[in-house]
TrEMBL record:
Designated name of the protein: Phytoene desaturase
Protein's organism: Clostridium senegalense
SUPFAM superfamilies xrefs: FAD/NAD(P)-binding domain
Domain Amine oxidase positions: 12-279
Biological process terms in GO annotation: carotenoid biosynthetic process
Signal peptide extent: none
This protein's pathway: Carotenoid biosynthesis
UniProt keyword terms in alphabetical order: Carotenoid biosynthesis, Oxidoreductase
Superkingdom, natural source: Bacteria
Family per record: Belongs to the carotenoid/retinoid oxidoreductase family. CrtN subfamily.
Protein's gene: crtI
GO MF annotation, one: oxidoreductase activity
Keyword Oxidoreductase: yes
Entry keyword annotation includes Oxidoreductase: yes
């Protein structure tokens, strides 16, 4: 008789883990409180067009493919994937723009517009960071960090020292590059995991390096297409998905998870997998005294968290040639405005990311509308320093529109808006149970990464497992897919089903 698994949360981690366990013969039920699965990797849909709700940058495609191949399916049969070039168009407040391309000769043309010295520095930065990526990927990102004795082997300690993570991302980049625009373009991408480039460890310079060397990709139909295919496979393999049902507690008996209590009663099982936000799970779904549980070096009360995000969704009845798929606008006083986010203040002159998938994807807009997600990093709700009311939304909307209208070629954008909507930290908290509206969960500081980060299980509680962006190896869809592989392997080992 196969073990019964209940997965709390139908986000990308819950779906991926459920699919892997189904492949290994487990009886899997996924419980999702919202009306459809996907978690934050979701969809905003109107009659004529649709938006990816949050996730928009596909930068490491291998984990996406690996999951589909794990269940003996051909990735190419279900997804039409396009390579994006240039990977970014970068606008500066000085009214200039620069295209960053994967083709080396085109990239060099852009870099040499800065200087030959910075061109050499950029290439050297890529090489040095790539070396760190190989070490991190081989020793840490793809493996569980539960066994601390294994981690502390001399060989692993040597690898850790070679990563040179003590520098912050910004200062590490400055070792190679003088130009501020080029430095800020690379540093801006560190915030993709919700950490400041002026405080976060230099290991997150892996993000711009991976984008530049491995490229960026787009799944036709948007990121939610991947969710739809996972849902289809789960149902085909006999899994059950129940939406509109809320898990209120995890049932623990003799330090063992043996079921969940929902708004409809107790449901028993052999294994509980939590894809719900980790901090929310510990504080709300387990007994209150579990807030004292040690997570790495710290109790939950001492955990640091990532920033949040504000997203403005715009549909336009005019096409704008000046935009590419991925665009970054670097505003003045980059450091001051970035640091404000992490001390609980809204940036005065924010730098923004502009996603325009309608450049290469006509399946998301029936009448050829231009589709934009404009994303601004903002404080989380931990300090309650920003009141998320209509006035705050209007303030950010006006800031964003002011930036967009300042770009040559977008001067009349405001006149062509036919739809707009917003997502705030309050939405992340209420719809997706993101603890204090933190967009990326637990902050990946040096003291909260690898073995110091929450792992896929807690020693004191049996048959309870975790997957998601707060769990090792970290935030981002690709990392969560790796997390799903790690937790599945642990379950198979624990239940003697590991080959």
């Amino acid at each position: 008789m196969s073990e019964k698994v209940i997965v709390i949360g139908g986000g990308i981690g819950g779906l991926a883990t459920g699919l892997r366990l189904l492949k290994n013969g487990y009886d899997v039920k996924i419980i999702e409180k919202e009306c459809r699965v996907g978690g934050k990797v979701n969809l905003l849909k109107e009659k004529n067009f649709k938006f990816d709700l949050t996730a928009s940058i596909l930068m490491i495609i291998e984990p996406y493919k690996e999951l589909i191949e794990y269940i003996d399916k051909d990735f190419s049969m279900f997804f039409n994937v396009k390579s994006i070039n240039p990977i970014y168009r970068v606008f500066s407040y000085e009214n200039k723009y620069y295209d960053f391309n994967n083709e080396l000769y085109k990239l060099m043309n852009t870099l040499e517009d800065f200087s030959q010295k910075d061109s050499y520095g950029y290439i050297k930065f890529l090489g040095d960071t790539y070396k760190h990526y190989i070490a991190a990927n081989n020793y840490f990102l793809c493996e569980s960090q539960i066994n601390k004795f294994k981690i502390l082997k001399p060989k692993n300690i040597k690898v850790i020292e070679s990563l040179k993570t003590s520098n912050c991302s910004y200062h590490y980049i400055k070792k190679f590059i003088d130009n501020n625009i080029l430095t800020e373009f690379l540093a801006f991408q560190s915030m993709y995991v919700g950490i400041s480039p002026f405080d976060g460890p230099s290991i997150y310079t892996l993000i711009p390096m991976i984008s530049q060397l491995h490229g960026l990709w787009h799944i036709e139909g948007g990121m939610y297409r991947y969710v739809e295919v996972l849902e289809k496979f789960i149902l085909e393999l006999g899994g059950e998905i129940e939406c509109g049902k809320n898990v209120e507690k995890i049932h623990i008996e003799d330090n063992k998870a043996d079921g969940v209590i929902t708004n409809k009663g107790l449901e028993k099982c052999d294994i509980v997998v939590c894809n719900s936000d980790f901090s929310y799970t510990i504080k709300k779904l387990l007994n209150e005294n579990n807030s004292q549980l040690k997570i790495g070096k710290y109790t939950m009360k001492k955990i640091q968290y990532t920033c949040s995000t504000f997203i403005m969704y715009l549909a336009l009845n005019k096409k704008y040639d000046i935009l590419k798929v991925h665009n970054i606008y670097l505003n003045k006083n980059f450091k001051d405005n970035t640091q404000k986010i992490f001390i609980g203040e809204l940036p005065i002159d924010p730098s923004i990311y502009i996603y325009c998938p309608s450049k290469i994807d006509n399946t998301i807009n029936k009448n050829g509308e231009e589709i934009l997600n404009v994303i601004v990093r903002v404080p989380n709700l931990c300090e309650n320093s920003v009141e998320w009311n209509e006035n705050t939304i209007i303030l950010l909307k006006e800031k964003i529109l002011s930036i967009l209208l300042s770009i040559d070629g977008l001067e009349d954008l405001k006149e062509h808006i036919i739809y707009e909507n917003y997502l705030t930290p309050k939405d992340l908290e209420s719809k997706f149970n993101c603890f204090n509206g933190c967009a990326f969960g637990i902050s990946p500081t040096l003291s909260q990464t690898n073995w110091f980060r929450p792992q896929c299980k807690i020693e004191k509680l049996k048959n309870l497992y975790f997957v998601g962006d707060s769990i090792h190896p970290g935030a981002g869809v690709a990392m969560v897919l790796k997390s799903s592989k790690i937790v599945t392997d642990e379950i198979l080992k624990d239940f003697k089903n590991y080959n």
